[in-house]
Amino acid sequence: FNLHYCNLEKANISETMLNLLPNEMMIDRGIVPVGKEAGRLFVAMVNPTNRSVIDEITFLTGIRPTPLITT
């Protein structure tokens, strides 16, 4: 996997991104949408290899996310 790290303490996350997914889902699955650029949705994930969560994000947003690793 070629994953990039996202430091959530330093990330400037818009309210639009935070409202993209249900809060309960973000907490339960350890994910935070952090940005969108050129049709790509960047999502910080505690477990960025979890395909079922990636599929859930795709289903809810209509966009296949680009996972970023975070802690």
H/I helix tally: 3
Class per helix and strand makeup: alpha/beta
Mean pLDDT: 95
Termini separation comes to 17 Å
Q: Please estimate the helix content.
A: 25-40%
User: Major β-sheet, in short?
Assistant: 4 strands, mixed
Poorly predicted tracts of residues? none
Outline, from the CA principal axes?
globular
Task: Please provide the count of β strands.
Answer: 4
Strand content: 25-35%
Order of helices and strands: EHHEEHE
Strand order, largest beta sheet: 1-4-3-2
**Cα Rg:** 11 Å
Secondary structure: elements and pairs:
Blueprint: E1 4-5, H1 15-18, H2 23-29, E2 31-37, E3 40-45, H3 51-61, E4 65-69
Parallel strand pairs: 1-4, 3-4
Antiparallel strand pairs: 2-3
Structural account:
The protein has 71 residues and is an alpha/beta fold. It has 3 helices and 4 strands, in the order E-H-H-E-E-H-E. It has helices spanning 15-18, 23-29, 51-61; strands spanning 4-5, 31-37, 40-45, 65-69. The protein has a 4-stranded mixed β-sheet with strand order 1-4-3-2. The longest helix is centred in the C-terminal third of the chain and has 11 residues, at 51-61. The chain is globular, with a radius of gyration of 11 Å. The chain starts with a strand and ends with a strand. The mean pLDDT is 95.
Question: Can you describe this structure in just a few lines?
Answer:
The chain has 3 helices and 4 strands. The chain is of the alpha/beta class and 71 residues long.
Question: Which terms would index this structure?
Answer:
31% helix; 3 helices; alpha/beta; 71 residues
